[in-house]
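Question (not urgent): is this output format expected?
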Amino acid sequence: MTESVEKTAKGAILYDRSVISEIGETRFTPQGWLHSEPVGGSHGSGGRGNTMFVGNVPRQFVLRHFVRGGLVGKAVRDHYVWTGADKTRAFMEWRMLAKMADSGLRVPRPAAARYCRHGPVYTADIITVRIPKVRPLSELIAAGSCDSAFWEALGRSVYAFHASGIYHADMNAHNLQIDADGELWMLDFDRGRLLRPGPWQQRTLRRLHRSLYKIRSANPALHFSSENWDRFLEGYFAASRSA
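Got this back:
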């Protein structure tokens, strides 16, 4: 991974020439591509309407505009306080994804990121390589039940991220995505960090647990049970004991 930075009128673009050969301001808008479509998904997996698939097969990209969630997001949708280029949400996530992808973890390969400064605040966007044939965990368990082996394997895969010190600020059933081979991919590392082992690992597991039960309460027919979670934890802690 070799990063390049180009200054723009209002900010800068960080990108990898080996992943995306042509970059400019227009690439961070849907209109800058011959093909673009919103990322869909049921059970809340489509994000906050800020994400697009862009480009053409065989290599497509995911374009995401950084927006705030929660109560803050209702008042300030997409502006962040300026503290320096290297501390922008987009540049930090791009570099974290690059480290993880280079180390073999299943995360989207970063292509480009930019920030646009507006005095004391900025807006940001990121482009990543689209992972083929993945679906959110939330959609997978809505479509049908998964056996014990799946949940145990999922637990082991999440532990692999934790063992590498990967902190995901919003690990939920939408950001955990499963490919055609049943392998876990982790998406959306906004506010993610590299940390030493600690209480944060259990906090992220509790967050995932709440996410699963939240979508389960919204749809009682959804295929998730306490036994599934027990098998997940069995896989997670078995991996930690053998590490």
